[in-house]
Amino acid sequence: LQQVLPMQLAFKYFDLFPEEKEPIWQNPCSYKRHIEIWATSKDCNRLPKFLVIGPQKTGTTALYTFLAMHPAIMSNYPSPETFEEVQFFNGKNYIKGLDWYMEFFPIPNNATSDFLFEKSATYFDNERVPMRAHALLPKAKIICILINPAKRAYSWYQHMKSHQDATALNYTFYEVITATEDAPSSLLDLKARCLQPGLYVQHLLRWLDYFPTRQLFIIDGEQLRSDPVLTMTHVQRFLHIQPLYNYSQSLRYDPKKGFFCQVVSEEKNKCLGRGKGRVYLPMEPASDEYLRQYYKQDNIALSKLLLRLNHRVPQWLQEELRN
Ligand code: A3P
């Protein structure tokens, strides 16, 4: 038998089990022994009932805004760094722990009828997020939005350009998406951020490794854009929210913005900021054709998956496959 100092023992342990170096947060209220030692001031109801996971540029801010208008739905408090997104399950925030996460949520007045949620569009395509989200929130419902992945890629490129990203300013969209392995790393990074989130089926399958199909809802982003009132009814039905809130009085098409906005008064609408619904030139045909081929197999697999899961195949996907 040998005696070693606690720190040495810890190093030895993590040498043997490196996969345990990072904690995995679980809900303390799921375990009798944990809840007994947890401070009485803490409240397990201060956790989201559902997550909007993205991906980026599919209309996640519009959905977040519309959800937050609902009398029974409460969003997280904004983060000083990442604004409306908490971004807990991905990246460096996860290590900050459960208390850090829970501080973002109000204490619900009625834990049964109040719906807390958060939207972090970076969750969708992050490899670790489904496992981590499931460990803490196994019963949470998961909502994602899908638009044509080619359109999503182009929107991301335009987003980076308007944020004065040097690579997006220096290269055309076609140059970005067709960059080869010998290209500068900044170009390859931008290419990956344009293209990878759009490999929808691969990311969805990862979520389905952890969450059952009945907990997953896929919104057609084109429908959210053209008919948000109907889309919000579908979302409420999926969440089992009663009574249904009728969005037809609170959302109205704004011809100047070209999108649906929140009704403020008879003449006034509150639309999303300039960064949402940007005006830019349409994608050139060469990029369009390249991306159609690039996403072809993945889109076919996506439609098969949606049919298998009994989910509706969105119009944009049906058209893409016909093409
Ligand atoms: P574009 O700015 O490229 O048109 P996200 O919030 O996930 O970043 O998505 C931004 C996209 O949401 C916008 O991309 C826009 O097309 C889409 N969108 C959908 N409904 C919208 C709405 N009511 N107002 C503004 N943008 C909306």
Q: Can you offer a commentary on this structure?
A:
The chain is of the alpha/beta class. Helix content is 41%, strand content 11%. It contains 14 helices and eight strands. The chain has helices at residues 6-16, 32-37, 60-68, 98-102, 129-136, 149-162, 166-170, 173-177, 185-195, 200-208, 221-226, 228-239, 285-308, 315-322; strands spanning 50-54, 73-75, 115-119, 141-146, 216-220, 251-254, 259-263, 269-270. The strands form two sheets. The chain has a five-stranded parallel β-sheet. α4 (98-102) links the parallel β2 and β3 (115-119). α6 packs across α9. The structure holds adenosine-3'-5'-diphosphate (A3P).
Brief overview, please?
With 323 residues, the protein is an alpha/beta fold. Helix content is 41%, strand content 11%.
Task: State the main characteristics.
323 residues; alpha/beta; five-stranded parallel beta sheet; three-stranded antiparallel beta sheet; globular; binds adenosine-3'-5'-diphosphate
Question: Strand order, biggest sheet?
Answer: 2-3-1-4-5
As a percent range, the share of strand residues is: 5-15%
Most strands sheet:
5 strands, parallel
Tell me the distance between the termini: 71 Å
Tell me, rounded to a whole number, the average pLDDT. 96
Which ligands occur here? Answer: adenosine-3'-5'-diphosphate
Order of helical and strand elements: HHEHEHEHEHHHHHEHHEEEHH
Count of runs of 4 or more consecutive helical residues: 14
Q: Would you identify the regions where 5 or more consecutive residues have pLDDT less than 50?
A: none
Rough outline: globular
What value does the Rg take, in angstroms? 22 Å
Indicate the percent of residues in helices. Answer: 40-55%
Could you state the oligomeric state of the chains shown?
single chain
Number of strands: 8
SSE class: alpha/beta
